[in-house]
Sequence to fold (325 residues):
Amino acid sequence: MMLNDIKIAMLGTTGAGKTSYLLAMYAVMQTGIKGFTLSAKDMDMDLDLIEKWEQLIDIEAEDRWPLPNAAAIEHYSFNFSYGFRPIMSFDWLDYRGLALSDRSSEQDVQALCNYLADSGCLFLCVSGENLQDKITPAIVRQIKSDRMNQFIQQIISNYRQPTPDQPFPVVILITKYDLCHHRDKQAVIEDIKRIFQALFTPNSGWLVMICPVSLGKELCQDIDRGSIVPVNVHLPIVFAIYSQLRSYGIKLKTARLRLHEEIDKLKQSGMLTKFLKNGLFQENAKKLEELEEKIEIVEENMGLLAEELQQVSLFLSGSEVKANV
Fold:
């Protein structure tokens, strides 16, 4: 089963850790989680990501960290697989964090808006450095959530209006969580909900995951020499794939329901013998069997991914939910 490709975009300010997160996520998912793996479509891109990751874990100095992204936009393409069998491909956009401050006439801002319009999942990056204490208006300005909200509006205007039945998935990624780990987890979640209030309104159709991630607990004490031991970095991409499977599963079940209705009408019309002769009834029965097989595969994969998502907070239209099949 191969789903349609999607695009994933991450919004966040300079220094929020977008590139470091990408490197850690790729390294962890290369090894795999419950048989699910990630691979770069391009072999040279794979080597480039590995080299940057090895620099992070091998060097114990300020030079270990990637420099802020100077290029306007960098594209990465990945395959998400189960047992090395591709399930879905996705593109990943890495851009200058300063794009959140640029005018709309700037080339990188225009490219980012176009990319967002076609995105299937959105990551909002908030640094734990900004969540060490209860949020203030000054902290909100540093996070630039107002600009993130403006970019989110592009999805509504150009992509589609999310609904509770067909929600749009959003990950609010708390990077460098080691810096705010001393706070009560629920207090941090409430701060996040205040920063992005519109994503948690009733009947809004946003499926939101709040996910703390870290490259290592020791980094809060020594950022240049602390051990790199990633925590939770796989969960956002697991959520993104889970959300696409969920949406695909809903479409399959809708198609199954309609097919059942068609078959019931044939049975009730008294024309069953006629349809049996010309093969239409058998054709519908075969379609139904194929749908059942697809649904079974989707639910099996969703179940495996949902197990990983039990440890994070999920919200659908503002109400907390659990990942299920």
